[in-house]
Amino acid sequence: MAEFLDVFSRAKYYDIAFWRDVTDEVTFIQDLYQRKLGRPLRTFLDNACGPGYHARIMAKRGVKTFGLDLMPEMIEYARQCAEEDGVRVNWIAADMRTVRLAEPVDFALTSFDSLDCLHTVDEIVEHLKTMAENLTPRGLYLIEATHLRRSSLSHYGDFFYEGQRNGTKVRVDWATNSPQVDPVTQVAEVEVVMRVVDDGREQIIVDRARERFYTSQEYIALAKVAGTLEVVEFFGEFDLDCKFDWSPQSQRCLVLMQKKQ
Q1: This prediction's pTM
Q2: Whole-angstrom Cα distance, residue 81 to residue 7?
Q3: Does 169 lie in the same domain as 56?
Q4: Containing domain of residue 179, as a range?
Q5: Angle 53-60/72-85 helices, nearest 10 degrees?
Q6: Percent of the chain residues topping a pLDDT of 90
Q7: Is there a single domain that holds both residue 71 and residue 168?
Q8: H-type helices in the chain, by residue range?
Q9: Alpha carbon distance 174, 213 (integer Å)
Q10: Maximal CA-CA distance, the chain
Q11: Are 133 and 13 within one domain?
């Protein structure tokens, strides 16, 4: 997700609308690392983590975990959630293009289409180099993006997210301006509208940001330009047996990169 600063600074409302159970996704990550490296996952980075869904479950399973997000409000909210869960996560408010962790991790994850906030080749290459520097030898980096059938350069698609908790209702309508993707830059100007009913009062937050679309071959090419990571596999779901293709079970685009020796 791009940098919708007005929406993302309202971390509690974001959590209500976008929450999803990522338990199986965390299991997939652990199993994937075991299959690729032949040993259990020991350290993990939840990149652009938001409320830290993956980070908190991973920490609960005994993995040393870092949670990174650009928004201090989101990091503070994630910290409070982790305290309520009774787990310890190393929370960091920083830019994923330049962050330097206190120690390298075995596995890094960028989920929820969060890579789309990097718009230029220079930005994405800088980010990939940074991720490699923060990985242990042969460490893995997984990127989650929307499947082409739902959103592509020629058809942005229609999306909304909603939820309610303790009497608070939140709905986020995505791409309300029917955005078109620039065919040269592959960037779209996207408007989102967050509607909140909290304690009987309604709020409407309108926000805009730019989103970059990437193709499968671009991931491969950009990793080669960065020179420190290589694309080793694509998945269509958080499932070791699900390929990225047009089959019904392939609902996402998961790009797996590995640090070069």
Answers
A1: 0.97
A2: 19
A3: no
A4: 159-211
A5: 30
A6: 97
A7: no
A8: 5-8, 11-18, 23-37, 53-60, 72-85, 121-133, 216-226
A9: 16
A10: 57
A11: yes
| Number of domains making up the chain | 2
The Cα–Cα gap between 139 and 179 comes to 37
The residue whose two tokens read 């938001």 is: 50
Separation between Cα atoms, residue 24 and residue 40, nearest integer Å: 17
239 & 174 share domain: no
Contacts of residues 157-162 at CB distance under 8 Å and 24 or more positions apart, as own/partner, are 161/17, 161/18, 162/17
The contacts of residue 129 (CB under 8 Å, 6+ apart) are: 226, 227, 228
Quote the tokens at residue 241: 């047996």
| Whether 181 contacts 213, CB under 8 Å | yes
* pLDDT tens-digit map of 190-244: 999 999 999 999 999 999 999 999 999 999 999 999 999 999 999 999 999 999 9
Angular region, 103: left φ>0, alpha ψ -120 to 50, beta rest: beta
Q: What is the rounded average pLDDT of the residues 88-115? A: 97
Same domain, 195 and 94: no
- Name the residue type at position 98: T
Q: pLDDT-derived band of residue 5, with 50, 70 and 90 as boundaries?
A: confident
pLDDT in tens, 6-39: 999 999 999 999 999 999 999 999 999 999 999 9
Residue 176 sits in a domain of what CATH number?
A: 2.20.25.110
Alpha helices in 86-150 (DSSP H): 121-133
CATH code where residue 27 lies: 3.40.50.150
pLDDT at 4: 78
